[in-house]
Amino acid sequence: MKVVILCGGQGTRLREETEYRPKPLVPVGEMPILWHIMKIYSHFGFKDFILCLGYKGEMIKDYFLKFEELANDFTLNLRSNSERVYHHRKEQLEDWRITFVNTGQKNQTGSRVAQIKEFIGEDDNFLLTYGDGVAQIDLDKLVAFHLKHGKIATMTGVRPPSRFGEIVAEGNRIISFNEKPSVAQGYINGGFFVFKRQIFDFLSLDEDCALERKPLEAIVKKGELMMHPLDTYWHCMDTYRDNLLLNDLWESGKAPWKVWG
Fold first, then answer.
1. 154 strand-pairing partners
2. Cα-based distances in Å from 108 to 7, 208, 219
3. Contact 207, 111 (CB under 8 A)
4. Can you identify the CATH homologous superfamily of domain 2-157+186-252?
5. 3-state secondary structure string, 180-212?
6. Which among 36, 46, 190, 229 counts the fewest CB atoms within 10 Å?
7. Are 180 and 226 in contact (CB under 8 A)?
């Protein structure tokens, strides 16, 4: 299955970083969050990617065109650019196939997906996620669930971490305090979708077609959207605070989404 990653949004709530680069290139550790997402997929054998580009998309193209230089040390003869020696000390080159598609500066998510139909080809199913979220997810189980139920779409449902601390009190006396509790009830859209190609029947090339609105709402009415609950770690890099949290986890060596070896 091909993996579609939505990389075109402006990331306005992370303006501290996205003023200078697209959100998928905001670093977690030494590598962009997009790399972390792609590593999750490639760990499960999904290595054929389609990136839906928009805001500052040329920077994403440039990053991967220069990936070997950026990820490794190298020796260069200035008189001959072809005469360079790479010292693969940090990162070996990934065996990924990446298709870069410019899907517009202001287009909504549904419009972006509609534009990559030709690159899906005749495949019956494909995976899709956003370019700003990581999870401790078993993609083999997600795909098996999707293929078993036979519906058009599968959405991963997650319980997001609360942005506020949780206080448990007896009267006026606090008996416990949890700084980062998860929402106890209710799931939200965590991305990590699997779609049958019939999803394109519900999409439009119109700039304002948002996947999460009319297309998915129409699929729900037909009883064709299933949820795969994820009760392990999930986090979306929505704000600068989220970026700091993900970096802290990565630097501590305890990043839950690092499912690869």
1. 194, 226
2. 11, 5, 18
3. yes
4. Spore Coat Polysaccharide Biosynthesis Protein SpsA; Chain A (3.90.550.10)
5. CCECCCCCEECCCEEEEHHHHHHCCCCCCCCCC
6. 229
7. no
C-beta separation of 141 from 134 below 8 A? no
55: CB partners within 8 A, 6+ apart = 8, 9, 10, 11, 18, 22, 105
3-state secondary structure 122-181: CCCEEEEEECCEEECCCHHHHHHHHHHHCCCEEEEEECCECCCCEEEEECCEEEEEECCC
CA distance 26 to 7: 12
Task: Let me know: does 5 contact 52? Beta carbons within 8 Å.
Answer: yes
Instruction: Reduce the DSSP state of residue 261 to 3 states and report it.
Output: coil
Phi/psi of residue 43, nearest 5 degrees: -60, -35
Q: Which 3 state secondary structure label does DSSP give 93?
A: coil
Torsion on CA atoms 25, 31, 34, 39, rounded to nearest 10: 170
**pLDDT tens digits for range 232-258:** 999 999 999 999 999 999 999 999 999
* Domain chopping of the chain, boundaries: 2-157+186-252
The model carries a pTM of: 0.89
Ranges under pLDDT 50 in the chain: none
The tokens describing 222, both together, are 């037909």
User: What number of other Cβ atoms are within 10 A of residue 238's Cβ?
Assistant: 16
